[in-house]
């Protein structure tokens, strides 16, 4: 048991701000996982947890929480409250179900759960088939194109905006807002990131409040209408919670999905044998998608606050501390996955953690998997010679780790 190790994570290569680490974090994450599975990181003031067994069990452990605000104020928790100018961001974040704990979390999750069950989602298959076909038609006409901006990016946005009932004419506003808002989730976000996230929060929130007021008293034909009804019918949902829920669905639906699909294709291009095999056997798409989300985890790190002292791998982590659960390290742990650094398209079992676990398990997982299934199958079939034109570059972000663009063309258009 390693408990008294003084090697700082930075010396092992764990440098979340460093472009080299971001482009390939796996060697450094392996060094942490094998030598220092529970270690304090002074760069981020977090305890880094990297083994699959520990990440999996801490996600389900109620002695940890996504928030501490249901237990104590910032000051009582020994933290400084965020500055007043950031209020538009925090007013949008704190009421979100992802940052609440029971009973509020349960109440808010139940309000939207029905729309995201595997059955409800499967009913959307015909519509999503059409969306994907149209996007592929458009991309094919371009010849050489950016797989992210010209194809992948519009899929999750269109699907979730359809579900909610966001007017077509406004949809181009959504992705830039969610991209900017999620900048605040980076470790030690720069002042520029904080400003952009705050500005986008104010604009997004004002836009939604106007839309919601226009929708009041109208029949509910979509998820937004159902939420408006829930808010009108009494104490189930406040207006702040309503706005925050819609923003969460739009943000969560965009960022992780775009990065998940794009990183998966980049992994396939770098592993031509796996790509050839998937082209030969597209029926492997469902397990292949999960394997690709394991192999290159789109959201590599999620944090928790320690609400009551815990002991992990023999190390005591006191109340009040923050832990960083390194999903990307856990997803490559040889103790849970034979040959973890290889893409095994039909891997089974595959206890990957990319959608989390426990009460905050990704609400959108069935939807994301369906979108990917349709997208990947149509791309394999209709773009059989898709190849890279140039080496893509990573955005300077680790928490939502994604590529700037992926320039591609189809050799057999
Ligand atoms: C590949 C795509 C996606 C990935 C990798 C992903 C990943 C995750 C993860 C890891 C969590 C749990 C966070 C934690 O435990 O701290 C989560 C929560 C959540 N996700 Fe996703 N997500 C994806 C797509 C989506 C989509 C498409 C939606 C909805 C439209 C969505 C909505 C949510 C919501 C609402 C939560 C909060 C659940 C709760 O707190 O109970 N996600 N997601």
Describe this structure in words.
This protein has 17 helices and 10 strands. It has a single domain (9-410), classed as Cytochrome P450 (Cytochrome p450, Orthogonal Bundle), CATH 1.10.630.10. The termini are far apart. Helix 7 (125-142) crosses helix 17 (365-382) and helix 15 (285-295) packs across helix 17. The chain has helices at 19-23, 26-35, 52-59, 87-93, 104-113, 118-122, 125-142, 148-152, 154-164, 174-181, 191-215, 223-232, 239-270, 272-280, 285-295, 327-330, 365-382, and strands at 38-41, 46-49, 64-65, 145-146, 301-306, 310-312, 315-317, 322-326, 386-388, 407-410. Strand 1 and strand 2 (46-49) form a beta hairpin. By secondary structure, the protein is an alpha+beta fold. The chain has a 5-stranded mixed sheet, sandwiched between helices. Bound molecules: protoporphyrin IX containing FE (HEM). Protoporphyrin IX containing FE binds next to helix 9, helix 13 and helix 17.
Secondary structure: elements and pairs:
Elements: H1 19-23, H2 26-35, E1 38-41, E2 46-49, H3 52-59, E3 64-65, H4 87-93, H5 104-113, H6 118-122, H7 125-142, E4 145-146, H8 148-152, H9 154-164, H10 174-181, H11 191-215, H12 223-232, H13 239-270, H14 272-280, H15 285-295, E5 301-306, E6 310-312, E7 315-317, E8 322-326, H16 327-330, H17 365-382, E9 386-388, E10 407-410
Helix pairs in contact: 4-11, 7-9, 7-17, 9-13, 10-11, 10-13, 11-13, 13-15, 15-17
Bound molecules: protoporphyrin IX containing FE (HEM).
